[in-house]
Amino acid sequence: xxxxxxxxxxxxxxxxxxxxxxxxxxxxxxxxxxxxxxxxxxxxxxxxxxxxxxxxxxxxxxxxxxxxxxxxxxxxxxxxxxxxxxxxxxxxxxxxxxxxxxxxxxxxxxxxxxxxxxxxxxxxxxxxxxxxxxxxxxxxxxxxxxxxxxxxxxxxxxxxxxxxxxxxxxxxxxxxxxxxxxxxx
Length: 185
Description:
Oligomer: single chain
Strand content: under 5%
């Protein structure tokens, strides 16, 4: 399947649903598990080549640029940048997991703000159009952390797409790097 040009609407919907209720951010787990499931099933990067909503977003925004794109730095394609991003992704997931466990055990309070790069607080309170009471604080914490990670990587991808080629993020995307490692086995 070729990348459907309207898949970017899923990315926009994901971020919009976070304003409806932050717990919708947990739908982002689909974007982490489905690529691996498709990879194992098809032995190809099916997600990256046809279903990734973020690549669709970057391609769509890239078409609106009025200036000529610069080439993606070789360091991104053949260098260590993809391993640096995978390390960031792994550290972020570990931090998310450990802090969520700490909230679930009552050791620390739930975080109810967004953070850029998992550590920089965003001075913005997300409106919640639908309030879900009776949700465990650790679930709310996990949702904010996950939304923050998805927001960070999407912003990084947009910046890279505006500076270089639209899908520059795809060269360093942790899911693509994990897929490459699995396919080489």
